[in-house]
Amino acid sequence: MDLVKQFRSYIDNDEFLFAPGVHDCVTAKIAEKVGHKAVYMGGFGTSAAIYGKPDVGLVTITEMISHARNIVNSVNLPVFADADTGHGNPLNVRRTVQEYERAGVAGIQMEDQTHPKKCGNMPERHVISVNEMIEKIKAAVDARKNQDLVIAIRSDAYIDSGINELIDRGHAYIEAGADVFWPLLYDCKGVHEIKKVTSSFNNFPLMATLTNYSATAYLTLDEFKELGFRVVISPFAALSISAPIIMCLMQEMKDTGSLKAFSDKLMPFDDLTDLLGLPEIKKLENKYGIK
């Protein structure tokens, strides 16, 4: 089964899917090594990895596609990619979907924010009109050549208009062709509002995030499943944990000029090269007589 069809099967067969966020190829390979079924390439991690900047709409579609292609080529897993706002109007959305599809991703996620978009955890986010977003969704659906490509749609409407508007938009987006709906609930008042949302969609595939912040802070995957979600991602948990560890390492080397304090934490060189695929390269060298 190809990876796009495999990802689609997770959605269509009522399977619960967790896709950890990956910000580069190494993170993706680690996710694959420990046994995850798919990975999510988010805008926050991509912006941090290639620019060292926050997720405020600075990364172009060309850069997002290039980053996605590299991650797709580094693992044998479905890659679920952030398409932000679709990078413009419905015509731009068409190109975004087509380019992501050519890059080999198994699914995309698009949101109804105004441009320039911001990370969903940031304040001062605003949404476009329902009708404008519906046309963008229709353009995305029309643009995909492979009908197995999953199109997930996120709404940030809660922060502007509250829970009823969020639910209404979800139904409108599903009618327009969304395969998965992501009701962004970081700003909600608690689990009772989450339950109100999930109970409004009759087992339609809903998406959420595994986080350490907001109303969903520290909910477990089992709890998300019980609440009625079918797809869960953790957009930048890997980045959030690696940054302070690297900072400690850099500080230690600056202060002591030594790696001794980290001697039991550094990955052995052979393990690192194994993770990066050196054994497979060695086999190819032998096959083609490369000395």
Give an account of the 3D structure:
Helix content is 49%, strand content 11%. With 291 residues, the protein is an alpha/beta fold. It has two domains: 3-242, Phosphoenolpyruvate-binding domains (TIM Barrel, Alpha-Beta Barrel), CATH 3.20.20; 259-291, no CATH class. The strands form two sheets. It has a five-stranded parallel β-sheet. It has a three-stranded parallel β-sheet with strand order 1-8-7, with no helix packed on it. The longest helix has 20 residues, at 237-256. It is globular and about 60 Å long.
Per DSSP, what share of the residues sits in E-state strands of 2 or more residues? 5-15%
The coarse overall form would be globular
Count of the separate structural domains: 2
Alpha-carbon Rg, integer:
20 Å
What is the H level of CATH, i.e. the homologous superfamily of the largest domain?
Answer: Phosphoenolpyruvate-binding domains
Give unreliable regions as ranges. none
Main sheet: which strands, in order across?
A: 2-3-4-5-6
Q: What is the CATH architecture assignment of the largest domain?
A: Alpha-Beta Barrel
- What is the CATH class name of the largest domain? Alpha Beta
Largest sheet: 5 strands, parallel
Secondary-structure-based class equals alpha/beta
